[in-house]
Amino acid sequence: MKALRMLAAILAMYIFTGCGSAGTSTTDQQGTSVTVSEFGNVEGTVKDALTNSPVSGVSIQIGEKVSSTSETGFYSIQGVNTGTRTVMATKAGYDSYSGTVTDNVTGLMWQQQDDDITRNWADAGTYCDNMTLAGYADWRLPSIDELESIILLGSSPTIDTTYFPNTNASSYWSSTPLAYSTSYAWFVNFSNGYVYSTDKTLGYYVRCVR
After folding, report:
1. Are 209 and 142 in contact (CB under 8 A)?
2. For the chain, percent of residues with pLDDT exceeding 70
3. How far apart are CA 99 and CA 94, in angstroms?
4. Are residues 46 and 117 in the same domain?
5. In principle, which of 7, 53, 172, 176 could form an S-S bond with 30, CB 3.0–4.6 Å?
6. Are residues 78 and 125 in the same domain?
7. Which domain holds residue 66?
8. Helix (H) or strand (E) holding 131
9. What are phi and psi of 205, to 5 degrees?
10. pTM of the complete model
11. Same domain membership, residue 119 and residue 58
12. What is the pLDDT of residues 43-77, one digit of tens each?
């Protein structure tokens, strides 16, 4: 099972707002500090920084106190001790926006749908390097470890098709060459979720990442 990773990996995606029991308010991102000058509650909301919409299902932790956000993005933590407290947040799963999918565990942003064109390994890298999507121009071909991270065994194709629709049950290139043969590179076959290596001149599908 994937371990939860702090939202610090995707700071650009979320905005945290909080208010301490004494009325000290902050508007910042994950990892902000809230000053609690008297024993009491800390309340706030978590919103998507791109759409300004509330984000539900986010676990909020201040010291040993834990809460989670509601459908409106609101949370409330009771019995927080006085002092300056760091607010941390975790959220598992994916979020999609403007043709991209962000993995809340790894912090990677993925191209949501590939262009259904097969390319050799060199052209696959060039395609990602030249791509602009959702306002970003720093796309690249994923490493084999990164590509493996979106495998979902037990489904067909072996990926979460809710977030990655129209994925081919076929092979997708990674950027990782075979260590003992520079003419070969690793790929994932999304028909079965297995990892293989093959000649870089073959034509496989491409999903870019940043």
Report:
1. yes
2. 76
3. 13
4. no
5. 7
6. no
7. 7-90
8. none
9. -75, 165
10. 0.63
11. no
12. 777 776 667 777 776 777 777 677 777 778 787 77
